[in-house]
Amino acid sequence: MTPQQVASTPQKLVSDSQDLVKDSGAEVWQPPMPPTDLIFDDGEPLESSRHRVAINTLISSIRHHFVQRNDYFVGGNMFVYYSSQQVKNKDFKGPDFFVVQDVPPDPARLGWVVWEENGRYPDVIIELLSDTTEVADFGTKKDLYEKVFKTKDYFVFHPYKANSLQGWRLDSYKGYQPIEENPSGWVWCETLKLWLGTWQGVIEDDDAVWLRFYDESGNLVLLPQEAERQRADTERQRADAERQTKLNAALQLLQMGMSVEQVAQILSLTVEEVQQMSSS
């Protein structure tokens, strides 16, 4: 073939799914490279402030409960990318809350990109229903999580409807199977070994029925600020009990004829403290 003939040969147009490379004289199929220009914020706000608080509550409580663990990732309102076609279709919706087990925590993730995570999909997903998303959460999203993600545990809850909690557990042969409620109306999350149930109370000045986690014994999984209040209350109760014990002892010793100074020395108190106890 002459140089002129080479120059006039049309260039081949090869799609990203048909790339070929030479390997020892043979043509070998090369898989398409995943997209890198991913979008992690579509600019769309959450349905309501309560939805935002509900997501943050779930994330914060899980992080506090698993504070000693470094083998999981928890995310909320984040895109999950799982295919090139999804990117092309600009289908950027992600779960409201999800957990992936047995992965590095890496809080710097902007989203969950399956092909960058060794093919791992979320193990647990929770969708917070709204009037505009309810159909998809029960339909297309549920099908996606069941058939493509193969997410083990899927739950839905409407932040404005107290009795809306439902859950499904993935069966290898039958697909998603409804999770039965316990007498309290909670549903068991086998993956996390936690109950999901409702809790009435105030979070960020909003008195509502919130979706919360409970441990195997039925104890509420606390938020960090709740745990701190509980610790402070326990310490205050301990201090009050100790003061009452010393007060009783001081009164008995004073009644036995001991001086204020002697009682103070025996109980490791100041004279002023004994005087206050004796006059209270």
Folded structure, characterized:
The chain is of the alpha+beta class and 280 residues long. It has two domains: 49-222, tt1808, chain A; 236-279, Arc Repressor Mutant, subunit A. The protein is 32% helix and 22% strand. The protein contains eight helices and 13 strands. The protein has helices at 3-8, 49-65, 84-88, 134-138, 140-149, 224-255, 260-266, 271-279, and strands spanning 20-23, 26-29, 72-75, 80-81, 97-101, 112-113, 124-128, 153-157, 166-171, 175-178, 187-189, 194-203, 206-214. The strands form four sheets. A six-stranded mixed sheet has the order 3-5-7-8-9-10, with helices on both faces. The radius of gyration is 30 Å and the shape is elongated.
Summarize the structure.
It comes from Dulcicalothrix desertica PCC 7102. The protein has eight helices and 13 strands.
Strand content: 15-25%
Largest sheet: 6 strands, mixed
Radius of gyration (Å): 30 Å
Task: Give the quaternary arrangement of the chains.
Answer: single chain
Q: State the end-to-end distance.
A: 112 Å
In the residues, how many domains can be counted? 2
Low-confidence stretches: 1-24, 39-43
- Give the helix level as a range of percent: 25-40%
* Number of helical stretches of at least 4 residues: 8
- Strand numbers in spatial order across the main sheet: 3-5-7-8-9-10
InterPro entries: Nuclease_put_TT1808 (IPR012296), Restrct_endonuc-II-like (IPR011335), Uma2 (IPR008538)
Protein name: Putative restriction endonuclease domain-containing protein
Organism: Dulcicalothrix desertica PCC 7102
Domain Putative restriction endonuclease: 41-188
